[in-house]
Amino acid sequence: MPNRGIILNRRTLLKGVSAAALGMSAPALIRSARAADAPIKMAALLDQSGGLDLLGTPMLEATKLAVKEINAGGGLLGRQVDLITYDPQTTIQFYTQFATQAAAGEHVDVVQGGITSASREAIRPVLDRFQTLYFYNTFYEGGVCDANTFCTGSTPAQTVEKLIPYAMKKWGKKVYVLAADYNYGQITSQWVKKYVRDNGGTTVDVEFFPLDVTNFGPTIKKIEAAKPDFIVSALVGAAHISFYRQYAAVGLNKSIPIASTVFTVGGEHTLVAPEESEGMLVSFAYFEEVDTPANKKFITDLRANASKKINYVSEVTARSYEGVHLWAEAVRKAGTTERMAVIKALHSPVSIDGPSGKITIEPKTNHLLQNIYLAEVKSQKLHIVESFPAQPPSDTLLVCDLVAKPDQATFYFENGLEAAGIK
């Protein structure tokens, strides 16, 4: 159920579903007819239960902090921002229902949310239909080309492309891949195989696991028999943490190390024993350990304002905060919350200096130019070993040009990676 701003106000789903019958243009008409001093409405669709709350809870706290800062500074265009929150409970049906309620029932100006790629693909067509601006603030597999959707998280060409050659140089060329069995894991594993091949290596095997799998015993035996030089893990969520514990329990982490495209994003390195994650390599657009005044202030303010304990501040948390401020900066630049004017402002392009550094909208893809960091886990801390400034989303640029073709609303990598020429 949704919560409104700091003062909580429950609404029924029936209101949103009934409003949907009014047709796709009604929300845009209603938004433009509001009083000049009426609150600007933002919705957040972030899991607070159901298995992905490990990520969703700090993401929501960061979203709330950004809205609080905006309102404390006088709001936007002289108006306060009213934040309406929904808990989809890691259930795809609820993402669709709540996206409909936010757009057609509440007539929000923007939606910030979604964690998994499946949740994004449930939300995105609904918001396209109702002409409601959408920010997806989670790192993902790349390939979304949608004029109405802004993907602010990092993509494989920004992170995996850095992680794989570094790990191969450090450990060797034989790689075993473990991945979550949905779009993110399936497509990311293809990018891993490409970068392994590009750097003269071999992918020994690839295995996929549903999000609720907790028993990795048979797979660990297969890894032991295959004798790879290292593992690449694209495992996702609380259940998959079991792999790292079981892997360390048989001592394989000491002889076959791990690089991951996901680990630490939910603070997993603080949840397992130090020896279970020691020496792992990861790459993201942000780590809590980024040593800048802006990041230190963000971390202090986030923990001081959060209603729940935040174990670790990762890319998805920082980017949830930055996604709100990117949108706010575009509203200021446009001088209105009208969707097309805000999109035009974002393409101008909009940049902000946030906790992760300078981030800039790349207008051909609605993704970001952003800093990328490589780090090693040591004693449950992330030690940054390399950084790469202003990296483009070159994977999505292979298939997407919203400047030349602005009417696109396509997820190019949904059915494989043929469009990018790597499968």
Topology summary:
Elements: E1 3-4, H1 13-20, H2 26-32, E2 40-45, H3 53-72, E3 81-86, H4 92-105, E4 110-113, H5 117-129, E5 133-136, E6 144-146, E7 149-151, H6 160-171, E8 174-180, H7 183-198, E9 202-209, H8 217-226, E10 230-234, H9 241-249, E11 258-260, H10 268-271, H11 274-277, E12 281-284, H12 293-305, H13 315-334, H14 339-346, E13 351-354, E14 357-362, E15 367-378, E16 381-391, H15 394-397, E17 409-411
Class from helix and strand fractions: alpha/beta
Summed over residues and divided by their number, the pLDDT gives a mean of: 91
Number of beta-strand segments:
17
Low-confidence stretches: 5-24
Short description:
38% of the residues lie in helices and 22% in strands.
What does this protein structure show overall?
This protein has 423 residues and is an alpha/beta fold. It has two domains: 3-155 and 290-371 and 394-420, Rossmann fold (3-Layer(aba) Sandwich), CATH 3.40.50; 160-260, Rossmann fold (3-Layer(aba) Sandwich). It is 38% helix and 22% strand. It is built from 15 helices and 17 strands. Strands 8, 9, 10, 11, 12, 13, 14, 15 and 16 form a nine-stranded mixed beta sheet that branches. It has a six-stranded mixed beta sheet with strand order 1-3-2-4-5-7, with helices on both faces. The protein has a two-stranded antiparallel sheet with strand order 6-17. The two termini are 41 Å apart.
